[in-house]
Structures are given as C-alpha cells and as structure tokens.
Design the sequence.
C-alpha cells in the first residue's frame, strides 16, 4: 500500500535527523576524549605507551567501521552483554573517531618543532607544562581544519548505523521511501538535510582559523 | 669552587663519539668562549651541561650537583642555567611579555603584576622595553634574539649558555646582540659562549676553549690562545674564520 509523500513525512525525516546529530555528537565527544589520550600517548617519552597508541590507531584505521558496528551489536550479546543499537553505535563510533582524531592531533603536535619543546624544557617547565602552554596552543591552530573535516565525514558516516537498525536520517529515509515510493523526493530532501548540518561546520572552521590566525 | 665541572665526559650518538673525554671547569664570573669547526661538538657540550642531552660516560657537576645523575632534578637545575639558541626559539603564539613571563609564572608561581614588572626590567637590559606588547614575527632577528636573552635572564640564572647566537644574524644586527652580552659580562654573569666572533671573544672572554673532533684541543687565556696558537689545528681554524 503506497501512500503520498506529505508534510508529515518531511517532519519524520527532520525528527530522525536529531538522532544523526545526537550520534555524531556522542561519537565526537567520546572520540575526542579517546583521541586526546591517544595523541598525548603518542608524544610521551615512554616508548611502550607510544606503541600501544599506535597499535590502536592502526587497528581501527585498518578495519571497516561497519565491522565495529556488527562486532558491538551482534558480538557483545554472545558474551552475555545485551546492547541496544544506540549503545552499540555510540561505542563503535567513539572508537572509530578516537583513532582518527588521535592521529590528526598527533600530527598537529608533531608539526611543532622539537626546538619549541626544548626552549620550554630549558626554562624549567615540566613536560605537561610545555605541552599545555607551548605546544598545544600552536597545535590547535593546525588541527582545526582537519578536525572539522573529519567531523563532517563522521556526520555522514553515521548513516552506517542504519545497518544495525539504529533509526537515524538515512534509515528513516529508507522507511519513508518504502511506503511512499518517491525516492527522488525523499533522498533529495535527505541530502539537503545532511548538507544543512555540514555546511555551517565548514564555515565555522574557516572563521575559527581566521580568528586564531589574527590572534596568533 | 667551580660552578661547572666536566670530567672525562663522553657523549655518543649511536656509534658516533661526539664528545671524547672532555674535561673542563668554569669558575663563577668566568666568561669562556668555545670555538671550533662545525661538527666539533660545541653545541652538544652546551646541551649536555643543562641536561638536554644525556651523556654516556664521565660526570658533569653544576654547583655541586651531578647533572647526569638520574636522581637530579633537571627542572630545578634548568631554572638556574639559561640557554640561548642560534634560532632564538621564541614562542610564536605569545607576545614578548608572555614569552618572558611564562616560566616565572608557571615554574615560580610569580604573580601577574610582579611578572610584568620583571619582563620590563629584563627588556630594559636588552634595550627593548618598548616591544613588550609585540609578537615575535613583528621583530627583526636581532630583536628576537635579544628577547630570547631577556627570557632567560628573567629566571635569574647563575650560568648562561649561548650557542652561536649571532650566526643567523646580518652583520648590522650582530653588534646589538654582542653589546647586550658585553653588558651582561660587565654585570658579572658567568657565561659559556660558542661563537665565531673571534674579535668579540678576544675582547670579552677570559678564557678560550678550542674544540676539535670532540676533544678540547687547546685552551688558555683569550689573549694568548687566540694570538699565539700552539697547535696547527687552531692556527688553521683561526686563519679560516679570520679570512
Ligand atoms: N641529535 C643528534 N643525533 C645524531 N647526531 C647528532 C645529533 N646532534 C648532533 N649530532 C652530531 O654530533 C656532532 C657534533 O654536533 P654539534 O652540533 O655539537 O657540533 P657543533 O660544533 O655545534 O657544530 P656547528 O658549528 O655546526 O654548530 C656532529 O657530527 C653531529 O652530526
Ligand atoms: Mg652548533
């Protein structure tokens, strides 16, 4: 039974987009925490700590995100942990984002010349103070564009969570399309909603870059 | 008692022996010029003295404390040993004032107003008080180097290490930096400076150390060593830098 595509369907799509935003937000926050830890681990003087972080990044970057989603959704119940799609998706995305953000931020930290660390050390600053007052403020500037770029990718990639039954924008679109059979209308609207989420981010990144540049 | 004492110091990078049984002392108030060809180990020696580079053998003492002992608090030591690099290494994201006050604020917990006063004081010493609000990229090389000196002075070090601090500067800018060094010498600061400015070394240094192939090849009073070298290597070196 096929029905007409109506305003209510549009509202359903918008409502589902909230879950896209929520999943992106949680993934970015969780991934940000993991990523910060990973980036710091990779610049510490302790070699085993660096290796651990490197292994994590390599393992996650070398495997498909979909595999992590399945692992958490179908795998965890096998060891007795019941997870709903929301928890499974949030965890998988945080792990995924953590590896990529960690790598981006490590690159930004590594872009600061070794002599900046040395100048700080020579003044008697501790490792953490060198990081906090000298390295991080300079690294943040370098990290902003690729970080926002990744966030945009992340928002679009949340559509993969549809595969484990998490109803976000793309999954809702599939459902709507199945009952209205208006793929053009539905998916053009969906594309427009994704665009409306991502475009302001890239603009904001430009603004931040400029502002930080002026303020040095 | 000497302020710095190196005894039989050996430093290797892999299999490359860069400091080979180096021994010397620096008495308080002494000004020692370290000269030598590129790669002879001059920078490495300075970096070992403030613990930026570990050593493989021998011993380095600063004011009675063993620098190369893992138990030694290097952070406490570095507050008392200033180092200025050839490439200035100012913090580009911080103003001149913040470059200078960062360590006093963070390491010594100085109040903001006290730190600002200190920044003014050390900037006056290097003749740059009016640049307190500038950023490093708004300054000439000579000015940046003087800010770097001021930044070190703000920690009130007992010893200053200078690593070819005028080598990256145009000749016109070299003079202003050397003048600052001369004033510090007049204040009685103990200094160890790597330099290619032979005339300056003659005028200001009390002693000259000539390094060659990781060893102290020749040393003595500035006047004697520079005008009457005892070894062929020093003679060759001097004629190369003077011509
Ligand atoms: N971090 C390092 N790793 C490996 N080798 C190094 C390192 N730093 C210095 N060396 C080597 O140690 C030797 C001495 O270097 P050093 O920088 O102390 O010489 P220098 O006398 O200061 O020379 P210059 O006048 O060119 O500054 C050189 O052979 C150099 O290649
Ligand atoms: Mg050198």
Sequence:
């Amino acid at each position: 039974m096929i029905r007409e595509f109506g305003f209510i369907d549009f509202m359903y799509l918008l409502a589902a987009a909230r879950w896209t935003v929520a999943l992106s937000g949680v993934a970015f926050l969780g991934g940000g925490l993991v990523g910060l830890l990973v980036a710091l681990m990779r610049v510490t003087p302790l070699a085993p700590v660096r290796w651990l972080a490197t292994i994590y990044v390599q393992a996650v970057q070398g495997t498909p995100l979909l595999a992590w989603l399945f692992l958490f959704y179908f795998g965890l119940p096998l060891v007795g942990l019941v997870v709903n799609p929301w928890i499974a998706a949030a965890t998988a995305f945080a792990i995924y984002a953590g590896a990529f953000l960690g790598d981006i931020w490590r690159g930004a930290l590594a872009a600061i010349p070794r002599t900046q660390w040395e100048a700080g050390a020579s003044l008697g600053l501790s490792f953490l103070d060198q990081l906090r007052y000298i390295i991080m403020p300079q690294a943040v500037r370098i990290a902003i564009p690729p970080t926002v770029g990744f966030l945009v990718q992340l928002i679009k990639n949340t559509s993969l969570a549809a595969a484990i039954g998490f109803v976000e924008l793309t999954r809702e679109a599939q459902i709507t399309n199945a009952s209205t059979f208006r793929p053009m209308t539905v998916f053009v609207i969906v594309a427009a909603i994704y665009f409306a989420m991502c475009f302001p981010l890239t603009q904001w990144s430009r603004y931040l870059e400029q502002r930080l540049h002026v303020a040095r | 008692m000497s302020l710095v004492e190196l005894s039989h110091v050996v430093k290797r990078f892999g299999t490359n022996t860069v400091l080979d049984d180096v021994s010397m002392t620096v008495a308080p108030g002494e000004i020692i010029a370290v000269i030598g060809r590129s790669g002879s180990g001059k920078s490495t020696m300075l970096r070992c003295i403030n613990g930026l580079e570990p050593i493989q053998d021998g011993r380095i003492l600063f004011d009675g404390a063993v620098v190369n002992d893992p138990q030694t608090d290097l952070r406490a030591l570095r507050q008392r040993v200033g180092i200025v690099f050839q490439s200035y290494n100012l913090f580009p994201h911080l103003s001149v004032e913040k470059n200078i006050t960062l360590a006093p604020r963070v390491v010594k917990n100085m109040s903001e107003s006290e730190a600002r006063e200190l920044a003014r004081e050390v900037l006056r010493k290097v003749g740059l008080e009016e640049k307190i609000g500038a950023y490093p990229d708004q300054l000439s090389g000579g000015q940046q180097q003087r800010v770097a000196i001021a930044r070190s002075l703000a920690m009130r070090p007992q010893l200053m290490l200078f690593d070819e601090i005028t080598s990256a500067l145009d000749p016109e800018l070299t003079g202003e930096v050397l003048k600052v060094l001369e004033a510090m010498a007049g204040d009685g600061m103990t200094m160890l400076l790597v330099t290619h400015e032979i005339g300056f070394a003659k005028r200001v240094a009390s002693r000259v150390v000539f390094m060659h192939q990781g060893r102290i090849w020749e040393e003595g009073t500035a006047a004697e060593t520079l005008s009457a070298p005892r070894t062929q290597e020093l003679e060759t070196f001097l004629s190369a830098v003077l011509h």
Remarks:
- Chain A has a mean pLDDT of 91.
- Chain A touches chain B at residues 115-116, 118-119, 121-126, 129, 133-134, 137-138, 141, 216 (CB under 8 Å).
